[in-house]
Structure formats: structure tokens, C-alpha cells
Amino acid sequence: LNRQVPGMQQVWRILAIIRPWSMLDVFLIGLLVALTKLTDFADVIAGPAFFAICCLIPTVLLMNITLDPRYVWRRLAPANLRYSTSEDIGNQQGSDQQDRALLTCHTCSMVVLGGGHENVHCPRCGAMVHHRKPRSLSRSWALLLAAVILYVPANVFPIMTVTYLGRAEADTILSGVSALVRAGEWPIAIVVFTASILVPIIKILLLGWVYIATALGLSGPLKERTLIYRITELIGRWSMVDVFMVSILAALVKLGNIATVQPGFGAVAFCGVVILTMLSAMAFDPRLIWDRAGMQTVKRPRLARVKTDHDRVQNQGIPS
After folding, report:
1. Fewest CB atoms within 10 A around its CB: which of 115, 285, 288, 309?
2. Which of 74, 95, 121 minimizes the C-alpha distance to 308?
3. Residues 6 or more apart in contact with residue 231 via CB below 8 angstroms
4. Any residues with CB less than 8 A from the CB of 25 and at least 6 apart, and which?
């Protein structure tokens, strides 16, 4: 990163977009659950690849936690890029005009002077920057309602059909949890029950409550409401444990007439529920929580205290 490489901004921008969909930690839990289920069919002996992936995934996760994307964006920024300063912001007349002038890029977190325009391109990463996400609340509601509709067949239809010695047995999410409890595998049963039943319900209810409160412009604990939204945005991905488990079992258990595992429509519907709830949370703009509650009229801090990207760059000694 000490020198400019053509196309690196686009590559890092794509990585920033797909980063929420990288579920290595969830996949690892799904792998452990699948291996536990495999013991019902045969003796399972972990090989070197299993231990390697158990070491690889935490290493990648630790790398993602340690690496600061904002630092990378500053290093990848064009050499002639000029960051906005407090003086530039102060030149805007009127508080409402200042609001419209200051835009935050959702990809690289750069503060951009929009000059009163709604849609501009970020000069650092090239992404479209908006004052607020267009039609955020309506799109979030549509995706959430679609997830609610899919949640019914996800729990009614079987997620997989296990054929063992010629006998086929279909399992729904609840029946799978019950089977784990009867087998005495309480830790796995708790993980599956929490990830596949509790988390989707809690996320749908909390997101619905946040959307309703935002649409009605309710005041109240706005900071706590924003925190709840952030938490639901993070926990939704863990519902993919069941989907990964079924996928791994379907790929591994191919023993002909002895044992086979076929994924069912319930798994497809449940995967749709998880994806739709994640998209719903991503489509929502949490700043609307404060806007709809009338917080845009609250007195703003003095512009001299505004810390822009230019100030951060100067403080860290990184050339802009």
C-alpha cells in the first residue's frame, strides 16, 4: 500500500460490499453441527484439513477485526484528493444547508461536501453518496414482510430428508431440535434452536418495532433504539447455521442405498428468510430514527469541533 496500484479502489470497494456476506464464523459452527449429525451414520475421524480450517477461519476473522478499513481507504486515496476541512463546512450558510452539504459515504466513510446536491459520487471510492438512503423505510418494510411470509413455509416444510437403510425421514427445524434433545446432544440443540428459531423471530420483531417507531416519529430512547438496530444487524447472519449444516450433510452423505441426505424446501425458504432480513436491515437508514423524531432541529455542535477526514489524516501523519 505504499504506492498506488491501478484498480485497487474498485477491488477494496467490492470487498467492502461483500464483507457482511462473509460468514466464515457461522460456517464453522455449521460444520461442527454437521459433523455431530454425521456420527448418526458412521464413525467420524477428523483429518488434517478439519484442523487447518479450524485455524484458518479464526485467523481470517482476527485479521478482519484488526485491519481498519478507514486506514486502507486513506492509503488508497488518489494523491490529489483534498479532504474537507472545518473551514469548508463553515462556509455553508444556514444549518439546513450544512446538513445537505455534508454527506457520508457508506462504503469508505468519507465526509463529502455535496454542495446541496442529493446524489454525488465519492471522490475516494467512486460510490454514490446520498443525504439519506433513497426510499429506505419502504424498501426495508417490503423486504421484512417478504421474510415474514417465507418464515411460515420455512418452519412447516422439512429442511432435509434423511434416508437411512431404505427408510426416509423428513425433519423440520423443530423436529430436528427435538431429535437432538432426545439424543442427549443438548449443546448442539441449544445452538440450533437459538440460531434457527429464536434469532429470526427476535430479529423480525425488533426490526418491525424499529420501523414502526421510525414511521410514526416516536421519540423516547433514540440511542437505545439505534443500538437495538445495530445488534439485530449483527445477529441475523447467525441464522445461517442450519443452512450450512444441511448443505454440508447433503454434500457429504452420499452412501447410496445406505444413507443419503436431501435438502428440502424448508431449507430454501429459511435461507430466503435470513437473506431478506439481512437485506432489510442493510436497506434501512438508522439516521431516519433521529430525523423522524425531530432531532434534526437539535442545536448542533460548533463547527470548530467538527473532526473531518482531513483532521484525522493530519493527526495520524498520513499524507493526504
Report:
1. 115
2. 74
3. 206
4. 57, 61
Place of cell 493530519: 314
The model's pTM is 0.77
Residue 16 in grid coordinates: 467492502
Residue ranges of domains in the chain, CATH in brackets: 80-133+300-316 (no CATH), 136-284 (1.20.140)
The cell numbers describing 35, all together, are 459433523
Residue 119 near residue 129 (C-beta atoms within 8 A): yes
pLDDT at position 236 over 90: no
Name the 3-class secondary structure at 277: helix
Element counts in the chain: helices (H) and strands (E): 15, 7
Highest mean pLDDT: which range of 102-111, 184-193, 196-205: 196-205
Residue environment code for 211-225, b if the CB has 16+ CB neighbours within 10 A, otherwise e: bebbeeeeeeebeeb
Long-range contacts of 155-159 (CB under 8 A, 24+ apart): 155/197, 155/266, 155/270, 156/266, 157/264, 157/265, 157/266, 157/269, 158/264, 158/265, 158/266, 159/242, 159/246, 159/263, 159/264, 159/266, 159/267, 159/270
CA 41 distance to own-chain centroid: 35
**Exposed (0-12), middle (13-18) or buried (19+): which is 7, by Cβ within 10 Å?**
exposed
**Contact at 8 Å (CB) between 197 and 173?**
yes
Task: With both helix axes pointing from N to C terminus, report the angle between 265-283 and 199-216 in degrees, rounded to the nearest 10.
Answer: 30
Say whether pLDDT at 285 is over 50.
yes
Q: Are 197 and 177 in contact (CB under 8 A)?
A: yes
Return the number of other C-beta atoms located less than 10 Å from residue 313's C-beta: 16
pLDDT band at 302 (very low <50, low <70, confident <90, very high): very low
Angle, alpha carbons 211-140-297 (nearest 5°): 50
d(CA 105, CA 255): 51
Alpha helices in 123-169 (DSSP H): 136-156
Angle between helix 241-252 and helix 265-283 axes, rounded to 10 deg: 140
